[in-house]
Write a structure and sequence with these properties.
- With 245 residues, the protein is mostly helical.
- The chain folds into 3 domains: 113 residues; 84 residues, no CATH class; 45 residues, no CATH class.
- It is 72% helix and 0% strand.
- It is built from 10 helices and no strands.
- The longest helix is centred in the first third of the chain and has 31 residues.
- The protein is elongated.
- Keywords: Coiled coil.
Length: 245
């Protein structure tokens, strides 16, 4: 019998116990246990489906033995004590185990989802640090892609699936992953185009841009008329920003 089967059977027992003649406090407690167990079972199934879709090799690090023992202990208490088992230690232990294992699954999903964006890390860092000495169109494209990717990476692909689908205009995790790959490709291509533009600049222009974007900056007094003319000819004069030290 799988964990899911055990959980399903236990929910049936809980439903039967809840229908018995019990006080309001026990009834509320029983429904709470049932709902938490049901949510955990559904989440476990969703994580399994997620893992299969992303092709994750490693399995979530859950403790199936501990889960079986806690479910078995509570099931035994339920058979022996009926609804009174809702307020016994076995029920508390079951909920604690469910909470701990759910957190393990959360960490697995977060780590796995973050790994889907590995190909964008270098480009995202470039955008974050402002290392974009290219045309306005390319810089705008890179920043927009980076902003979207950063937002998507921060979402939970299971618990926030609806928002993920809405932002990507797709239905289902596979479609979302495909669109994420496209966005990462667009970002990396924009960064590559910026680098190609910079490589085509004269050494003098590159030097001015690099110094102006450095922590030390470029003193205005050191900028010559020839520098300004070269920056204007390269179409990157707007990259030069004057700031007070």
């Amino acid at each position: 019998m799988t964990l899911y089967d055990r959980a399903t059977e236990l929910r049936v027992r809980l439903d039967a116990a809840n229908e018995a003649d019990v006080g309001d406090e026990l009834l509320t407690r029983g429904k709470s246990i049932r709902d938490q167990l049901s949510a955990a079972s559904e989440y476990l199934a969703e994580v399994k489906a997620y893992r299969e879709t992303v092709g994750q090799a490693g399995a979530p690090k859950i403790d199936p033995k501990r889960l079986r023992q806690s479910i078995g202990g509570f099931r035994g208490a339920l058979a022996k004590s009926g609804p009174r088992a809702f307020q016994q230690q076995s029920a508390t232990t079951l909920l604690e185990v469910i909470g701990a294992e759910t957190k393990r699954l959360d960490r697995f999903v977060a780590s796995s989802w973050n790994a889907q964006f590995d190909q964008a890390k270098a480009s995202l860092e470039r955008v974050k640090e402002g290392q974009l000495n290219g045309s306005i169109d390319l810089r705008t494209r890179a920043r927009m892609c980076a902003a979207r990717i950063s937002t998507l990476r921060s979402l939970d692909p299971i618990r926030e699936r609806a928002e993920l689908e809405n932002r990507l205009g797709g239905k289902g995790l596979a479609a979302c992953l495909e669109r994420v790959e496209q966005l990462i490709h667009e970002l990396n291509e924009a960064i590559k185009a910026i680098d190609d533009e910079q490589a085509a600049m004269t050494p003098e222009v590159r030097q001015v841009l690099n110094r102006s974007s450095s922590a030390a900056g470029l003193p205005l007094a050191e900028i010559t008329a020839d520098d300004l003319a070269a920056l204007r000819a390269a179409g990157v004069i707007d990259d030069l920003v004057v700031r007070r030290s």
